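Pilot study result, target chain (125 residues):
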Amino acid sequence: MTRPRIVIADDHRLLAELCKSLLDPEFDVVAIAGDGVALVSTVGELQPDLIVVDIGMPRMNGFEAAQEVRQSWPEVKIVFLTMENLPEIAAEAYRRGASGFLHKTCASEELVLAVRAVLAGQTYP
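Predicted structure:
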């Protein structure tokens, strides 16, 4: 059976690599993108099942990149992982096509739980 393919987009390389190490045992993390433009390009090339994306990134923020991904590849699931913790930011993420929203202060297991839930067709939280 093929494991779900994931792209992580965060301009903080250390955090992106930590997310990769958390997800790798269960999923195939096929790429890390450091900005929104790279994310959109990477999704087009690799056709992942899901992206984990930060909001605050250079060249194109996560909202804009996720919206572009959603328009071009509507089957790709989106989970935001961000420092932004305001209800209106989460609401905007869901308006832009997110199926999951996590704050970067969450427990590490929560990222895996969110990815599982979103891949199963649920929203998280």
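One observation from the pilot: The beta strands are 5-9, 28-33, 50-53, 77-82, 100-103. A full batch analysis is planned for the follow-on phase.
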